[in-house]
């Protein structure tokens, strides 16, 4: 596997080989989480037994998540298939998957649910991508079976799949499917133009594959989740720099509908709190004021190593007063040097560091670190702010909005020019930095790689509301949230205005619908009366013609009587 440079999610720069016309070399572990459902599992394994991918490179691990009676290995299954029990201490799909991955030998992990019947080239269609790059997440294409009918036997499934006739195994359900995924893919040029904040939405776990190293590097499955684990993992894979590839030729049948299809509102109600806590991109789920979240939307880093307490405090207070509610501040410095030994409190050479720690030690939104890791994973953004410069309450939100608008990887805020160069604050997209770290050559500038893959832009401090501490602090130090409150009030006012406008628009739409209905009724009435008028006209014409015929017959009758009278003569 290799690390070619893929800009954004544009996997179109890769050229996968045609199915059946290449030589695989990577091993794959197909991990199947299962609980009960032996009959469906038998069909899943029968289809996997007929795959075109070389059997010596394919293993199947069925993870039995507490089935009673325990699941058994059927007669028809791939050569290297085993059933393992989920590790003790947990339960659920995420736990079962993590248990399976822990014992998997494959270089690629391919999750397949226990109610999936794969087409003949399903695994091969996934795997041809993984031979091109080592940070791809490949998503199969699901077709949902219609309810009713007698299911095929495992032997029939194996024969049909082997003969490339999986199409004929089931009747497709016309009312159910992942149409929303199809629409997202189509709307973004086959998903090649999909923005970073959208990628995780198509990560549906029924059939998805990725390098084992990528999965483990992203932290594996969140075993605390019993539902929504695929969405949450998709988010973390985005932050790890993954590229998401919807593979149309990786076809498979889903036996029946999903729980999310049958009980949509209940699943959403269950998942929303857990997803809100872990996926900052779901902004619509983070509308509650005064909240802190497990994963912040942005991390702000301020280095206190060689800075005064006042400068560090100014920068940190500015960040903490952001209009964004989900910001976390990390202050770096040699915190390990702050021992508790006897010292002269006012003459302590480490006094500024002690004051910073004393000021923020009990703030839940602040953490202390000797240094920060290369990215802010799993937070999607990191702002590095030089001490002594204060971001305005709206600065961070404005920068992120700009980055999201263009899906940019790096925004550099030019603060001032010094003898050593231009001092800058920098907003980094976590996914962009992770991707650049993966593909950069030794000694290559990371910023250049980010610019090449995602784009980088310089902006000025004044337009983005950055000010030196001398002009920004301590004018609002007595209440560091005052500016945030002001902007929040402004936002609430704009929200109310927008709501009033929305109601007015709805009223106008309703009136327009009524007018259109009245107009349509008028057109129908006009057409109806026009038809009646035409009918009356035709009736009148027919009546006149009848009268004319009657008059002609009357004249002829009188004339005939006269002629008969003349002929008979007087009597």
TrEMBL record:
SUPFAM superfamilies: Nucleotide-diphospho-sugar transferases (SSF53448). Keywords: Coiled coil. Residues 29-154 form the Glycosyltransferase 2-like domain. It comes from the Bacteria. Residues 484-525 form a coiled coil. This is Glycosyltransferase 2-like domain-containing protein. The keyword Coiled coil applies. PANTHER family: GLYCOSYLTRANSFERASE, SLR2126 PROTEIN. It comes from Streptosporangium fragile.
């Amino acid at each position: 596997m290799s690390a070619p440079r893929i800009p954004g999610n544009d996997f179109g720069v890769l050229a996968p080989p045609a199915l059946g016309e290449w030589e695989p070399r990577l091993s794959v572990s197909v991990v199947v989480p299962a609980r009960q459902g032996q009959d469906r599992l038998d069909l899943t394994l029968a289809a996997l037994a007929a795959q075109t991918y070389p059997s010596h490179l394919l293993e199947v691990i069925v993870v039995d998540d507490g089935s009673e009676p325990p699941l058994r290995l059927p007669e028809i299954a791939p050569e290297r298939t085993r059933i393992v029990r989920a590790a003790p201490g947990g339960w659920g799909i995420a736990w079962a998957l993590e248990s399976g991955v822990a014992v998997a030998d494959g270089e690629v992990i391919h999750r397949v649910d226990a109610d999936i019947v794969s087409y003949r080239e399903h695994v091969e269609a996934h795997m041809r991508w993984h031979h091109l790059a080592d940070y791809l997440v490949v998503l199969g294409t699901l077709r949902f079976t219609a309810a009713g009918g007698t299911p095929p036997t495992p032997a029939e499934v194996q024969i049909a799949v082997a003969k490339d006739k999986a199409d004929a195994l089931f009747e497709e359900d016309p009312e159910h499917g992942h149409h929303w995924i199809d629409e997202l893919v189509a709307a973004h040029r086959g998903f090649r133009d999909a923005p970073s904040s959208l990628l995780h939405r198509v990560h549906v776990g029924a059939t998805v594959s990725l390098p084992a190293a990528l999965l483990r590097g992203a932290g594996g499955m969140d075993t605390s989740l019993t539902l929504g684990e695929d969405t949450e993992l998709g988010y973390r894979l985005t932050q790890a720099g993954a590229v998401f590839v919807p593979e149309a030729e990786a076809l498979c049948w889903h036996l029946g509908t999903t729980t999310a299809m049958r009980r949509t509102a209940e699943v959403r109600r269950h998942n929303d709190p857990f997803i809100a806590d872990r996926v900052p991109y779901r902004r619509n789920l983070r509308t509650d004021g005064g909240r802190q979240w497990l994963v912040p939307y942005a991390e702000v880093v301020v280095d206190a190593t060689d800075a005064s307490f006042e400068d560090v405090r100014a920068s940190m207070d500015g960040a903490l007063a952001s209009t964004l509610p989900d910001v976390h501040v990390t202050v770096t410095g040699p915190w390990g040097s702050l021992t508790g030994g006897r010292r002269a409190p006012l003459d302590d050479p480490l006094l500024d560091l002690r004051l910073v720690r004393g000021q923020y030690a009990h703030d839940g939104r602040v953490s202390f670190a000797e240094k920060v890791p290369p990215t802010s994973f799993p937070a999607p953004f990191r702002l590095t702010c030089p001490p002594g410069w204060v971001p305005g309450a709206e600065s961070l939100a404005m920068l992120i909005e700009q980055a999201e608008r263009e899906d940019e990887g790096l925004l550099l805020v030019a603060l001032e020019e010094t003898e050593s160069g231009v001092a800058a604050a920098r907003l980094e997209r976590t996914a962009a930095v992770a991707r650049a770290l993966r593909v950069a050559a030794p000694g290559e500038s990371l910023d250049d790689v980010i610019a090449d893959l995602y784009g980088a832009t310089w902006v000025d401090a004044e337009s983005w509301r950055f000010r030196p501490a001398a002009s920004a602090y301590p004018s609002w130090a007595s209440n560091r949230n005052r500016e945030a409150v002001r902007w929040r009030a402004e936002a609430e006012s704009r929200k109310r205005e927008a709501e009033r406008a929305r109601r007015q628009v709805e009223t106008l739409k309703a009136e327009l619908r009524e007018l259109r209905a009245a107009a349509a009724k008028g057109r129908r009435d006009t057409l109806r009366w026009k038809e009646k008028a035409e009918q009356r006209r035709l009736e009148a014409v027919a009546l006149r013609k009848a009268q004319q015929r009657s008059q002609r017959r009357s004249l002829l009758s009188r004339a005939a009587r006269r002629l008969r009278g003349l002929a008979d003569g007087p009597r």
